[in-house]
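Lab channel / #folding
Pinned by the channel admin:
"Please post every new chain as: sequence first, then the structure tokens as a reply. Keep commentary short and put observations after the output so the thread stays searchable."

First post following the new format, from NK:
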Amino acid sequence: MRQQLLFLLVLLTSCAGYYNKSRDISNKYYSLDFKETYAVLKGIGGLPGVADQEYFYPQKFEINLPKQIKGIGIYGVTYIIEYDNEQIIAINPGYQNHNKLPKIWSLKDVSEREISEIQNYWQSRKYSMRIFDYPKISRTTRTYMNGEVTIVLFNIKHEDFESDLAFAKSFKYLD
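Reply from TO:
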């Protein structure tokens, strides 16, 4: 009996950190659809920005992501997706009022503003801020962007970077 209880406790603890991959998630901001080997995130709403009494609504989008999602937060129009080992994918889709003409995508160094959005999420989860103190040699942090959309691959293990970048390249606008 004691062994069965210990096994159940270990099983519950090991599964508790991930979103339930057997059920899709949907709310007024996003939907998350779990496929066999990946998840599909659809950004479907959010709070508008306002400038000169003109409203700017977040761009609706779809992107494929690695499946083992630990948490999701939304800060402004930025979606923060958390994975094991302090790895994060942050997606800022821009606003609907912007021009949706094809843009040239590029991979760049991350900016302080992009890092601050991730820090806000990290702080809200009451995690240690030590990961922002210095870059890890075994990790990569880069921004994949096209001038309107910004996708930050933060603190990604070197062996995961190419596959995470391939997921980032699956970004597409929704009408």
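NK: Residues 2-15 form the longest helix (14 residues).
TO: also worth noting, The longest strand covers residues 150-157.
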